[in-house]
Amino acid sequence: MKILIVEDPPTVANFSALEIKKENYEVFVAYDSVQATMLIKKEQPDVVLLDVNLPGGSGFLLYDRAKFLVHKPLKIFIMTALEPEKVEKFILEKNIDRDSVFYKPVDIKKLLNKIKEG
Predict the structure, then answer these.
(1) What pTM did the predictor assign?
(2) Enclosing domain of residue 39
């Protein structure tokens, strides 16, 4: 399974990548929305772990765009440090499963369990 982590700063992204690689997933990392868009097109991930507060563009916009860039079902988990009230509007607009939203600091074990569940 291919997983793309879209996160800044790099230290957080790289730590998450190391933990997820331990589970034998193929992991790619992007630090901004421009890099993420290129990797989504090129690598066609199965899962995207998406920080919504990114340099180079909104993670909320990338959420919408990502599903059109892959040629198969794509599961997106949102990771955010934003206040729940700000995220709630987006959740309602996009009909997102609340179990797909992780508030920082993210419990990597819970996240891995959700990825395994599909």
Answers:
(1) 0.94
(2) 2-117
